[in-house]
Design goal:
- Helices cover 19% and strands 20% of the residues.
- The chain has five helices and six strands.
Length: 187
């Protein structure tokens, strides 16, 4: 049985890079827990790029815990992103499409379902509860409420670019060479 790291950084996650050494995702940041990383190393599915200063152990084995890994097989990133609540909120910058407020967001059908609107990238926007309630089951013209930007399906690349605006609160120094944010680490 393998023991947990001596000094875990929130569980010792590793930054996962594609075979081209770019992160699979910026937001959420592509991280694997230490258990999945150790398994991937043993199965020879990844290369270890950087390590933490602490180890994992079993009765007959000890290894420094990887902090950055790169996949052997390239994962194609040109696929269309999944239509999910999170991806809609990310596309809209985690702000209400009507008033621009950040916070508790909901889905809003720009053209209400009762008027033939579909649940799709081209008809859903992030909306704060007050705006969603105020708009109700009306069209933008009827409610005199128009999204700041027309909803559209983003590409995977566009979501990655938007995700770079939301750096995580904690990053290990070994990750910084592979991430493209201007961030100073906490001392």
């Amino acid at each position: 049985m393998i023991q947990a790291p001596d000094r875990p950084l929130e569980g010792g996650p590793a930054l996962v890079l594609n075979a081209d050494f770019r992160p699979l995702s910026y937001f959420p940041l592509s991280l694997w827990c230490w258990q999945d990383v150790v398994k991937a190393v043993f199965l020879d599915r990844v290369d270890v790029i950087a390590e933490y200063d602490y180890t994992v152990r079993s009765q007959s084995f000890e290894m420094r815990l990887p902090s950055v890994i790169a996949l052997h097989e390239f994962v194609n990133q040109n696929r269309s992103p999944a239509f999910t609540r999170f991806n809609v909120f990310l596309r809209d910058g985690f702000k209400c499409a009507y008033c621009g407020v950040s916070g508790e967001l909901t889905f809003d059908h720009v053209i209400p379902r009762s008027k033939g609107g579909r649940t799709s990238w081209n008809n859903i926007v992030a909306a704060c509860s007050p705006c969603n309630l105020r708009k109700g089951g009306r069209t933008p013209k009827e409610a005199r409420m128009f999204p700041a930007k027309a909803p559209a399906q983003p590409s995977h690349y566009q979501l990655q670019e938007i995700g770079r605006k939301f750096p995580p609160g904690h990053m290990h120094e070994t990750w910084l060479d592979y991430l493209y944010w201007d961030i100073e680490l906490e001392a």
